[in-house]
Amino acid sequence: MSLQEMKRKIQDFPKKNLIPLPTPLQKLENLSRALGGPDIYIKRDDLTGLAFGGNKSRKLEFIIQDALDKNADVIITWAAVQSNWCLQTAAVARKFGIKPILVLFKMYELPEEYDGNLLLDFILDADIRIKEAEAGKALKMDDVLDVIEEVEYGVKERGHTPYIAPIGGSMVGGSMDKPLGAVSYVDAFVEVLEQSEELGFEINAILHATGSGSTQAGLAVGAKALKEDVKVLGISVLDDKESFGRDVLDIAQDTVRALKAEIEMEKEDIIIFDEYIKEGYGVLNKDVAEAVRFMSEKEGIFLDPVYTGKAMAGLMDLVKKDFFKKEDNVIFLHTGGTPALFPNKHKLVDFLKT
After folding, report:
1. Is 83 part of the annotated catalytic residue set?
2. Quick count: other Cβ atoms within 10 Å of Cβ 66?
């Protein structure tokens, strides 16, 4: 499929233009040299400009348009207590006069004080509902569905029109009847492909932190349709690669159908590394703390301890294990999330002092 044909398919999905695109694609000269492996580039989706930036902004361009088209005046979503997704959703909702209700699942390891994203949710005057979650998990689906159903019922009883936005804008469900989050990252693949051509290099791999699945699904669909030899590598922050891989594949297949693309997504197209989850979602460890420091020292770019720090720890380990060829060009997708540095400050300091 040609780039122009894919662009036309994506244009069939209406969106609000919320963020400055394209986001920068830059070579990490110092990092590449220090690791002694492939040439590493960074795609700066942390610079989307909305509520400290991040990959969720791309998704929300499509999702907020869908909510407005459905006349919603309340948006309900859920995730972990320091969720980037919930912050970005609340910010977009407020921008368009929609009330955000955030159901935040508290894991035993995550701080609950008003700091990081939770502080920003509070500043946005989001309706915050904190629930307990299973240790090591961001959510337990049966509990989530019960809570969301109860919240939705209450909103409707008060005469409002709710829009249920699935976690991360990923799985089709709730009020979202198309994989809009993934479509936004097919669009992002088109963008990064054009940028790499302008910079004069061939992409061999795109590596990123993967959590709810639509970023990886969209990139994988883009790669399969437009440049099949590009490997899309997901560093899981939450679930094992077998169960999560099935979820990502489902989202990818839904995306292919929504785009009416003449390709077939298969299990082999979804590459996930789950060995870097370690102690669990959102639980900081020394490898991640050192990866955050390494990136800041070499490039002056900050990563977060939940997503991008874990992805960088994975990238550094894969380079060390000779997963890549020396001549490869690898793009590291910075998905944002830097407010999570602050509620994790004590653990970061402890790890980096030792």
Report:
1. yes
2. 22
The per-residue pLDDT for range 71-115, each reduced to its tens digit, is: 999 999 999 899 999 999 999 999 999 999 999 988 756 666 899
Phi, psi of 299 (to 5 degrees): -130, -5
Which H or E run includes 9? helix 3-10
Residues contacting 114, CB < 8 A, separation 6+: 122
335-353 per-position pLDDT tens digit: 999 999 999 999 999 999 9
Sign of the dihedral through C-alpha 199, 205, 208, 212:
positive
Cα–Cα distance measured from residue 98 to residue 94, given in angstroms and rounded to the nearest whole number? 5
> Please, are residues 216 and 238 in contact by the beta-carbon 8 Å criterion?
no
pTM: 0.96
Domains of the chain: 3-55+179-353 (3.40.50.1100), 60-169 (3.40.50.1100)
> Are the C-beta atoms of 77 and 155 separated by less than 8 Å?
no
> How far apart are the C-alpha atoms of 331 and 315, rounded to whole Å?
10
CA distance from start to end of the chain: 52
Residue with tokens 């590459």: 271
Cα–Cα distance between 97 and 84 in angstroms, integer?
A: 20
Tell which residue, 168, 134, 171, 131, has the closest CA to residue 148.
131
Q: Are 102 and 89 in contact (CB under 8 A)?
A: yes
Alpha-carbon span 309 to 282, nearest angstrom: 11
Residue 306 gets which letter from DSSP? T
Out of 32, 83, 184, 236, which one is annotated catalytic? 83
Q: Are 100 and 89 within 8 A, CB to CB?
A: yes
